[in-house]
Amino acid sequence: AQSVSQHNHHVILSEAASLELGCNYSYGGTVNLFWYVQYPGQHLQLLLKYFSGDPLVKGIKGFEAEFIKSKFSFNLRKPSVQWSDTAEYFCAVNPKGGKLIFGQGTELSVKP
Amino acid sequence: SQTIHQWPATLVQPVGSPLSLECTVEGTSNPNLYWYRQAAGRGLQLLFYSVGIGQISSEVPQNLSASRPQDRQFILSSKKLLLSDSGFYLCAWSSTSGSRNEQFFGPGTRLTVL
């Protein structure tokens, strides 16, 4: 069965630290890839997406993600986190023609 | 622009009582609609999806059902709630054009069954 795995359940960082959240999926075909973010008390919203082309994708608020097809990975990165980045982050994968499959989520806490 | 509404925002219900959660979308036509349940540490579990009026696909056998009486209205129901139905329920929509399946989420309903 297709699955998405986020290896970090809870990450705690200090402001200005660099961030990398891992995401791996199990599906051998073509996929669309997403990162969603849920800030405390807010809607789940799209952070960035990859459909095709340049595997390094830029999103909102300084986030980026890199699609590495050979590793079935789509890791999320930010060079310097802020307290306002405290949120839960979800990786999601959509096999072409299939449904959106979410990872378990990673809770990020940024200490001021 | 498109917006998605869910109500109620929070709900506390006794075991055995019925349930009706509503989701409506504005600003788009013939969307795909989805119901998810979000549990802490377990991500989002797809419960139902619909590609059109009256068309419902169930992903997980359970105590819940879904209906789509109008193009932009999606309802999650139960005849008798169980304690295990407690959770955070999210509605989402996506466009039917193309196959990119980018989904947009509503604010959610926090359901507590006592």
Question: What would you say this structure looks like, in words?
Answer:
The complex is a heterodimer of chains A (112) and B (114). By secondary structure, chain A is mainly beta. Helices cover 0% and strands 54% of the residues of chain A. In chain A, strand 8 and strand 9 (73-78) form a beta hairpin. The relative contact order of chain A is 0.34. Chain B has 114 residues and is an all-beta fold. Helices cover 0% and strands 58% of the residues of chain B. In chain B, strands 2, 4, 5, 6, 9, 10 and 11 form a seven-stranded mixed β-sheet that branches. In chain B, strands 1-3-8-7 form a four-stranded antiparallel β-sheet, with no helix packed on it. Chain B is globular and about 40 Å long. Classes of the chains: A mainly beta (112), B mainly beta (114).
In DSSP terms (H or I, runs of 4 or more residues), the helix count of chain B works out at 0
Q: What fraction of the residues of chain A are assigned to beta strands by DSSP?
A: over 45%
Q: What composes the largest sheet of chain B?
A: 7 strands, mixed
Structural class of chain B: mainly beta
Shape of chain A: globular
Note the topology.
The complex is a heterodimer of chains A (112) and B (114).
Chain A (H helix, E strand, L loop, with lengths): L2 E3 L4 E5 L4 E3 L2 E3 L4 E8 L5 E7 L5 E3 L5 E5 L4 E6 L8 E9 L5 E2 L3 E6 L1
Chain B lengths: L2 E5 L2 E4 L5 E8 L5 E8 L3 E10 L2 E4 L6 E6 L2 E6 L8 E8 L9 E2 L3 E5 L1
Relevant terms:
heterodimer; A: 112 residues; mainly beta; six-stranded mixed β-sheet; four-stranded antiparallel β-sheet; 12 strands; 0% helix; 54% strand; globular; B: 114 residues
Concise description?
Chain A is an all-beta fold.
